[in-house]
Amino acid sequence: MQGVTVIDHPLVQHKLSLMRNKDTSTAQFRRLLREISTLLCYEVTRDLPLETIQIETPVERTEAVRLAGKKLVLAPILRAGVGLMDGMLDLIPAARVAHIGLYRDPETLVAVEYYFKAPDDIAERLVIVVDPMLATANTAVAALERLKERGVTDLRFVCLVASPEGIERLRAYHPDVPIWTAAIDRGLNEHGYIAPGLGDAGDRLFGTR
Ligand code: URA
Question: Residue 143 is part of a domain; what is its CATH number?
C-alpha cells in the first residue's frame, strides 16, 4: 500500500499479540506499549538524514556522523498517544514533544480539540504524530490539519493498529504524510472500534475501565 509501512518485526508482532489479549493487565499493557513504541520509533526514524562531523576518539581525529537538522518533534494525540512517549523518548531523549488534545465524540465520532501546545518553531522541524489506534482517522486527520495550519510540512504518522478505513481516509486527506503501523486489522465495528483490535487503548493503558 502506497505510503504505508507495516512493521512486521517479530518482536513487534509478539508484543502486539500480548497487548491484544483481553487478559493482559494494565501494568503489562503499559510496559508492552513502552517496549513496542521504542521499536516503532526505531523504524519510523530509519531514514533520518545524517551529517558529517569531525570528532576526536581517544585514539585519533576522525570523521563521524550525527543526525542533521533541528531536533524532531514527537506529537502524541492525547490521551492514548502519551503511552508511546516514554519508549520513544528512551531512543530520542532530545526530541521535543507537542501535545495535541483531541477526543472522539462518542456519538458523532468527530474529533474535538481541547488542547494544543507545541514548540514555537515547530514549522521548521520534522513532526512525528503518534496515536496507538488509527480507527476512523478523524482525530489523526484533525491533528495533521492543526499542525499544517501552524506551518509544519515534514510530517509522519505512527500507530500500533490501523483499520483499512482509517488508512484510506488519512491517505485521502493527507497523501503527503507517510504512515507506519504494526498491523492493519480487518476493519471497524459498529462502535467505531478496530476489530479484532485491542479495545480502547486509553482505557487499557490508564486502567480507566
Ligand atoms: N480507539 C481505540 O482506543 N481503540 C479502537 O479500537 C478505536 C479507537
Answer: 3.40.50.2020
